[in-house]
Fold these 2 entries.
Entry 1:
Amino acid sequence: MQALLKELVAIVGAGNVLTGDVVSQRRTDWMSGAPCRAGAIVRPADTAELAAVMRRCYAADQPVVTHGGLTGLVHGGEAAPDELAISLERMTAIEAIDPIGGTMTVQAGIPLQRVQEAAAHNDLAFPLDLGARGSCTIGGNIATNAGGVRVIRYGMMRQQVLGLEAVLADGSVISSMNRMLKNNAGYDLKQLFIGSEGTLGIVTRAVLRLQPRLASEKTALVACPDFDGVTGLLRHLGRELAGGLGTFEVMWRNHYALLTEESGRHTPPLPPRWPYYAIVESLGNDDTDNHARFSAALESALEAGLIEDAVLAQSDAQRQGIWDIREDIEGLIDTLAPLFTFDVSLPIPDMPGYTEALERRLLQRWPEGRVVVFGHLGDGNLHVSVGVGSHQPQVRREVERIVYGPLAELGGSVSAEHGIGLEKRDYLRLSRTPEEIALMRTLKQALDPRGLLNRHKVLAAE
Ligand SMILES: Cc1cc2nc3c(=O)[nH]c(=O)nc-3n(C[C@H](O)[C@H](O)[C@H](O)COP(=O)(O)OP(=O)(O)OC[C@H]3O[C@@H](n4cnc5c(N)ncnc54)[C@H](O)[C@@H]3O)c2cc1C
């Protein structure tokens, strides 16, 4: 590797090939905080430098792992000592904003929050939003096809990308920087890279789709008497807000109670006595209209018995107080550690049966265990957190079998939005057919025949 590193220094400069303690002092994984084990970290400044780096790596048969903000939750950024990490931390430029076409062209290492802020500064919005917004990068969002809290209104990252550029394993550059909403000239190649978790190419630039900025955003926390209330409320708000439903996030009581009364971490805006709590948001352009429409929709939901109680945030601080409960992942880790987290999707009507059976089976096996559930319910996506007092790999396997086992029969997925990485690789077959997996292997072979990009991630070695 030393000879190769010398060649890479000639491309990116000595200060941008990091080795030794500087590498191990960096973390590789948000959840565990484990140190980075890569042989070196290479930090190109732009696509041309990255392409030159990959040409050298290809010639030397050198495997690489791409690093964005390292907030991924399935160990996709893990690198072995014989691998190089390619960090996009220097590629953070906003190249252009087109307010008429509603696009922003960026380098892929830019943090999501900077894109949101730049869009707002131009009276536009970039609607992808998630708790890791300050650290995660657009390249990572593309590579994982990130979801978040606005999917019900705007779709996942895939829907926010008009074009992109990627460097392939051999250093060739695929520039597919389309800026139009419509372009049916042959295969839509960008889709190959969105959600492929860095296994088919390294995303270097992207054209993002911006949306009109809506001036009014109203947030409420509501309590539902039962799951029929939750699903009834989802339909009710979808109809009453006429396309303005921006968020529908649900916390099971076990999650809401743990992070409020039980741990004392947050003051509960509503007492934790009902089975389900939903954070719902209404988006609109006129604040008075939006407030009136949202209040009326919540009132009629109350009258119809879909909800038991509601708090409509009256200030940014109140709104933040509600979101802080939902986004307190550190709180979950602190209170349930050692903790296993899962991100699954399944048809919404099957959710109560699935979570009840899950809790029953886990508590039968570990009577002292804890299971808490929350998620982007409107998207069919649940996050399940399980604490059974052990972090041993064989215990995790046992828990995984209980969590993932029922999903195939329900037509669910072992990964709703976090991807497969290393963590879920052995369970991919529960959510994809043998033919689908064979086609994935064909694509991998075509784009990365030497298997240099994010080795062993998503697809296990045959
Ligand atoms: C507090 C918290 C909340 C979160 N909430 C959500 C949520 O609501 N919804 C959601 O979907 N996710 C969520 N996540 C997960 C995570 O933030 C997303 O997966 C995010 O998209 C990862 O971006 P990143 O830049 O940190 O990528 P990284 O963690 O650096 O990388 C993730 C994967 O993408 C690859 N990759 C990174 N950059 C590139 C690139 N330029 N080209 C090719 N491959 C690349 C990496 O090799 C790795 O396999 C959350 C994480 C945290 C810590």
Note: Residues 287-303 form the longest helix (17 residues).
Entry 2:
Amino acid sequence: MFDDFINEKVADKKEKTQYRTRVVKQSLFQRADTLFFSGNDYLGLANHPAVVGAFAGAAKTYGVGSTASPMLVGYHEPHHALEEAVAEFLGFPRAVIFSCGYMANLGVLSALCGRHDTIFLDRIGHASSIDAVKLSGAKLKRYRHASVEHLADCIQGVSKRRLIVTEGVFGMDGDIAPVPELSALAKETSSGLLVDDAHGFGIIGDGGRGVLSHYSLPADSVDVYLATFGKAFGSYGAFAAGSEVMIDGLVQLARPYMFTTAMPPAIPASVLAGLRVLKEEPWRHSALTDVIAYFSKGAKERKLPILPSITPIQVFMVGESVDAEEAGKRLSALGILVSVIRPPTVPNKTSRLRISLNVSHAHDDLDRLLDALQSLGIRYDAP
Ligand SMILES: Cc1ncc(COP(=O)(O)O)c(C=O)c1O
């Protein structure tokens, strides 16, 4: 019954070079000298012995599953301990853990906004925010990327409740949102502000405290600070942090929190271990800073079309999807794995190679990557 419908949709994706294939990760490492510049494990915590040990230990203690929704009997000691630890780490009164970042966005936006409200979303905001707006029923207005002026124009004349949603570190561009100005505008216009710092939490700011710390902003600069454990913490899951009233409200109102099985307790246990590692091994942040600086300097010297970024997300602009796909294949043949990002993840004609740097990259690895990128001979003209 659905075959014609599906075939048509999939054919359209193929025609637009947007058809995606999944590859079993291990099979990517066909060469012994393969270099991996993909994924989001920026600090190398996914395989850290203390993190893996905490995960295994908690699975032994609590079993592999939480066995229920957090509202019933799925909320275990590690969930509670992680909520407290995250709130304390960031200086928020309270936090609540969601199963993943996608669901955290769905939960928060649908809890806070309804069809009479308007959500203002950065033009390159994550798909989970867009889908969350749909679930909430609120009106969606997109403002130009990181443009506080354009956002102010968009807000004018919108009289009902308003929520501004931005990423902290933008996952597909690697730049950092102008949070101080966004926060000032939110306060001036009595709008709410949600910062999704999926890629900044654990990475930027003092000891990895994220984008608010990066700008020395207090916790109450935002209404909700949301971030994930699946990136810098190498694990899985997400949280929202805010005032007592906000977090209690989310627990009561966020259906994607309530009506799903709580994450396995081993996951929050692994993130708690990751938080300890961040404090005990500050060299991880300095090593990452060195990797980023070395790569940026090499890219500048070689005049590569890399977007400005001080984060581990470095973006090599290509343009057309088909060219980005070809560039990814050529790098892969050289034993270098990067992520090829195409529409609809990014706007048309801005297909790119997303290079994810991490603490384990040595200068030699970075030189190999930089030389390979240069050998592509790509000149990018912004649309
Ligand atoms: C900005 C942003 N928000 C939310 C998510 C979703 O997080 P998760 O992978 O935990 O569902 C991502 C992940 O790609 C992201 O980049």
Note: Residues 113 and 301 are 47 Å apart (CA to CA).
